[in-house]
Design brief:
Distance between the termini: 42 Å
Number of helices: 8
Low-confidence stretches: none
Largest sheet: 5 strands, parallel
CATH superfamily of the largest domain: Response regulator
Number of strands: 11
Mean pLDDT: 91
CATH class of the largest domain: Alpha Beta
Length: 225
């Protein structure tokens, strides 16, 4: 397993990396949030171990940025903040699990194995291809096509289209989109959804006789023929 460890404390980082390598894993270490974000977005990892409090870029902001860009790599959040509110904050931001410092390496290893195994089991159960009419989405290849024509999508647009296709035929509200695609549990009072829906509609419907992405006035949006 290839693991990205984002931890600024050298002693903690050495302790974790030593245990992981002894377990047969490959470890890449980042000592601050900016370096961690760069590695997480430019390379592929099986799991991420992320410290909550980091220099250069806060761990929670890093986590929200990754999830907002559609990165679903299993992530274990390390935190010295043991209060319930802080743990809930991390989970709501997109962490798959958390571990409060100080901890035993055996518990970290067990929790990491658990979140990776859980994602793999979910991936096996879920379809790797979605289709609505002549629109197809390859989740593994990150490829979108309509009538065989490739559609170039930004990461957020891909995530938005995936969600709409999973809800095909149903009306999807703005609140549902904010929570599922942007990880917002509040209304930011911006036109972010309108902008992305407009861009996505231009990409998947422009030039085709029958539109697939429909606005349901006063309710939300629906993808379907």
């Amino acid at each position: 397993m290839r693991v990205l460890l984002i931890e600024d404390d050298p002693h903690t980082a050495a302790f974790i990396a030593k245990g992981m390598r002894e377990d047969g894993h490959t470890v890449e270490h980042a000592g601050d949030g900016k370096q961690g974000l760069f590695l997480a977005t430019t390379e592929t990892f099986d799991a991420i171990v992320l410290d909550r409090m980091l220099p250069a870029l806060d761990g929670l902001v890093l986590l929200q940025t990754l999830r907002g860009a559609g990165n679903r790599t299993p992530l274990l959040l390390l935190t010295a903040l043991g209060e319930v509110d802080h743990r809930v904050e991390g989970l709501r931001a997109g962490a798959d699990d958390y571990l409060v410092k100080p901890f035993a390496y055996s518990e970290l290893s067990a929790r990491l194995d658990s979140i990776v195994r859980r994602q793999r089991e979910e991936a096996q159960r879920e379809p790797t291809r979605l289709s609505v009419g002549d629109l197809e989405l390859d989740l593994l290849g990150r490829d979108a096509r309509r009538a065989g024509k490739r559609i170039e999508l930004q990461p957020r647009e891909f995530r938005l289209l995936e969600y709409l296709m999973r809800q095909a035929g149903r009306v999807v509200t703005r609140t549902m989109l904010l929570e599922a695609v942007w990880d917002y549990h509040f209304d930011p009072q911006t036109n972010v959804i309108d902008v992305h829906i407009s861009r996505l509609r231009q990409k998947i419907d422009h030039g085709f006789e029958r539109p697939l992405l429909h606005t349901v006035r006063g309710a939300g949006y629906r993808l379907g023929e």
